[in-house]
Write a structure and sequence with these properties.
The complex is a heterodimer of chains A (about 500) and B (about 140).
Chain A: H1 5-23, H2 26-54, E1 57-60, E2 71-74, H3 76-103, H4 109-128, H5 132-151, H6 157-187, H7 192-202, H8 207-222, H9 231-238, H10 241-267, H11 269-275, H12 278-298, H13 303-323, H14 327-358, H15 369-372, H16 374-388, H17 394-408, H18 412-438, H19 452-470, H20 473-487
Antiparallel strand pairs in A: 1-2
Helix pairs in contact in A: 1-2, 1-4, 2-3, 2-4, 3-4, 3-10, 3-14, 3-19, 4-5, 4-10, 5-6, 5-10, 6-8, 6-9, 7-10, 8-10, 9-10, 9-13, 10-11, 10-13, 10-14, 12-13, 12-18, 13-14, 13-18, 14-16, 14-17, 14-19, 14-20, 16-18, 16-19, 17-18, 17-19
Chain B: H1 5-27, H2 36-54, H3 56-62, H4 65-88, H5 103-135
Helix pairs in contact in B: 1-2, 2-3, 2-5, 4-5
The chains are: A mainly alpha (about 500), B mainly alpha (about 140).
Amino acid sequence: MSQHLPVLLVAVPLFLAPVAALVGRWKLAWAVAAAGCWWAFAASIMLLRRVMDEGTIHYAMGGWEAPYGIEYRIDLVSAFVALIVAAIGAVVIPYARTSIAKEVSEDRGALFYSAFLLCLSGLLGISVTGDVFNVFVFLEVSSLSAYAMIALGQDRRALTAAFQYLIMGSTGATFIVIGIGLLYVMTGTLNMADLAERLPAVSDNRTIPVAFTFLTVGITLKLALFPLHLWLPNAYTYAPSAVTAFIASTATKVAVYLLLRFFFTVFGAAFAFEQMQLDMVLMPLALVAILGMSLVAIYQENVKRLLAFSSVAQIGYMVLGISFGSVLGVTSGILHLFNHALMKGALFMAMGCVMYSVGSVRIEKMAGLGKVMPWTMAAFVGGGLSLIGVPFTVGFVSKWYLVQAALEQGMWPVAAVVMVGSLMALVYIWKVVEVAYFQAADPDHQIREAPLSMLVPTWVLVLASFYFGIDASTTASIATRAAETLLGVGL
Amino acid sequence: MDDRVILRIGAKILIPFILLFALYVQFHGDYGPGGGFQAGVIFAAAFVLYALVFGLGNAVKVLPPQAVYVCGALGVMIYMGVGFVTMALGGAFLDYNVLAPDPTHGQHYGILAVELGVLVTVFGVMVALFYAFAGRRRLDL
């Protein structure tokens, strides 16, 4: 049993997905999905502990040894990302029960939970596999199910949003598979570790930089780095609330993981940063994302859309950390991966509560909500503080590491941009807080607090974002060790 | 449709052979070109032909949308189920060697079993897509 854990982490949710579709009634389907999510959470915790104790885990699919067969290769980075995905899934699924029942029609409930499990297993699969083609397959599994879930939103614009995401996402996936194909032509292998060994011998051939470029563009499309983020705001805005919370906290994070995997494990930091001068591309884009998208977020009237633009800005922080190419920079990127999943998950879930009770997430509809929905809005403020980067929240921890990484390189203007980005986050969070707390509620509307089944999961994430902000030693040490693994130092 | 004798009789003659050919492609997948995906598409093509000639109403009577829906999900379960069986028998996930006393037969059975899963899902999804486009409305489950 325990030696099969790497594959069971992915296989159990994947097996339960068709089961959820077949049981028919949405309550049963929910129970199946919850079993899958909680199993994945338990399995990912066990895997992370085992990786921390024993080092990298290998699992040969079908008994075919790598590099000939597909290998699951779980190192600290994989295990950490898998834990983030599974944890968010485990928190979102109880929340989804109430939220989805309201936002998605009953006869589609079973299909929704089936898609949810597919998306979860796809994302988990990407994070644990050691085979680049397997990455592409799981990427498609998770993306296709995500398009379907987004299209289930109440608003008819969800359909165009999902279609736009489908076109952009498929373009990204095509670029990724072209990159993988070129690598395969040059090296004859698809195994990541094997690729890393064989690539240096052929790296002066022009095909390899082309493959690298295709992969970089494809993955940055998937992670919505400015200016390839256009699919994201609509998809996040019109998707059902639980889907937004889940996808915003996991899908782009897994894409950032892929970026790390390809840059550092497959191509190697020397190739990516010295030969290809990746930092010259990524850093300006990340800085524009932070400033530009925060500015756009300030002018949004729909809070989910506001948070979506803020997500693009936050992805800028992660990519900025990676673009330093230093241990501290990559640490801050990985750390922000985890921290942003917590805070954005909490914020989107708070907005889901507002959607549940008010039926809209436009700012003007939120007047006086601080009094009528005190727990929901307090959760929003908690997540918002983290987004701004106030001390004792996870946002502060990530920004602390990011600023340190910038100063380590002597780039104080970059550190200044991070600070300005935080101030802009303050502006857009305050916009919501002001309306919710300092404007009187419309007395004609009878609005009640969201049910406990939605508030508890939201608060779990809010409290987690405070807990890991106060005691960051666990996450920071895992992130540091993960960054050292990726950069191949300190081991 | 009653006056189109050639179409009707032609389809009636062809459909059994198309179904048989799908099974041929399925079972020969490990020796020659083919496999579950192609077999599933060919199998579905027989029903598409039936629907084109005899009308969607008759096709839905032969193969109800519920059955198509179940097929779409069932194939994935067959595929994953083979993986769980091989694990229960002491091998790795999808390690077909343990399915029979000697590895050659084990690989043979394993491939056929997972390809059967692929066939069932691909068949279900293909027909579901056809029904969705032909009916221009949601399948009533």
